[in-house]
Amino acid sequence: GAGVSQSPSNKVTEKGKDVELRCDPISGHTALYWYRQSLGQGLEFLIYFQGNSAPDKSGLPSDRFSAERTGGSVSTLTIQRTQQEDSAVYLCASSPRLEVRARGYTFGSGTRLTVV
Amino acid sequence: GQNIDQPTEMTATEGAIVQINCTYQTSGFNGLFWYQQHAGEAPTFLSYNVLDGLEEKGRFSSFLSRSKGYSYLLLKELQMKDSASYLCAVLDSNYQLIWGAGTKLIIKP
């Protein structure tokens, strides 16, 4: 696609429920990142996928968080047993590895998650 | 550890010039980025520096000094639409972007 697509754009869920957030990166982009951004805060790194390499999961805040990337394209971030502190905007970004120097990442519009 | 510092908030007047500083300490260096983020929107790419010096792009310029671990973003002829957060990020040796917390720029008429 022309850009990074994320769905849903907004999600309200009850505490304790599981949620799935989806990211469709730009076609051909081998690198995909998930970030979390709380209101007025900077970007918090969650997980990074690069091609067929094992993902860098070092940013996941707890074992309730997991992510997968199928076929090197679409990625799903899953949060189990959601807590109120999980409320944030979840941003996905992708980049073509060789061009990341010149253009950085392209971000999706994010999913605003509210846990009530 | 890796660290990127930038001021939390700055205020400037429409039509004026403002300089937003960024200092960094990272594991390796493959370039420094500036992004703009309007409230409620995703960050968008502004500039990239990998060599020392000043890169000018219209009203925006970005400067880098690798020996000092320092960069700044210079915005000229400020417009109200420039009110946003400005994020500094460094590409480390693993080609991952390390992000600063962002500088919220408030433009007053």
Radius of gyration of chain A: 14 Å
Alpha-beta classification of chain A: mainly beta
The coarse overall form of chain B would be: globular
For the termini of chain A, the CA-CA separation is 33 Å
**How many strands, what sense, and barrel or not for the largest sheet of chain A?**
6 strands, mixed
| Low-pLDDT regions of chain A | none
Average pLDDT reading of chain B: 94
User: Average pLDDT value of chain A?
Assistant: 91
Q: Beta-strand level of the residues of chain A, as a percent range?
A: 35-45%
Q: Strand share of the residues of chain B?
A: over 45%
Name the helix and strand elements of chain B from N-terminus to C-terminus, one letter apiece: EEEEEEEEEEE
Helix fraction of chain B? Answer: under 10%
> What gap, in angstroms, lies between the N and C termini of chain B?
40 Å
Using DSSP, what is the number of strands of chain B?
A: 11
Provide the succession of SSEs of chain A. EEEEEEEEHEE
Stretches of chain B where pLDDT falls below 50 for ≥5 residues?
none
Helix content estimate of chain A: under 10%
Q: Which shape of chain A, going by the Cα principal axes? A: globular
How many helix segments of chain A?
1
Structural overview:
- The complex is a heterodimer of chains A (116) and B (109).
- Chain A is built from one helix and ten strands; from the N terminus they run ββββββββαββ.
- With 116 residues, chain A is mostly beta strands.
- In chain A, the strands form two sheets. In chain A, strands 2, 4, 5, 8, 9 and 10 form a six-stranded mixed β-sheet that branches. A four-stranded antiparallel β-sheet of chain A has the order 1-3-7-6, with no helix packed on it.
- In chain A, strand 6 and strand 7 form a beta hairpin.
- The longest helix of chain A is centred in the C-terminal third of the chain and has 4 residues.
- By secondary structure, chain B is mostly beta strands.
- Helix content of chain B is 0%, strand content 57%.
- Chain B is built from no helices and eleven strands.
- In chain B, the strands form two sheets. In chain B, strands 2, 4, 5, 9, 10 and 11 form a six-stranded mixed β-sheet that branches. Chain B has a five-stranded antiparallel β-sheet with strand order 1-3-8-7-6, with no helix packed on it.
- The radius of gyration of chain B is 13 Å and the shape is globular.
- The chains are: A mainly beta (116), B mainly beta (109).
- At the A-B interface, helix 1 and strand 9 of A face strand 5 and strand 9 of B.
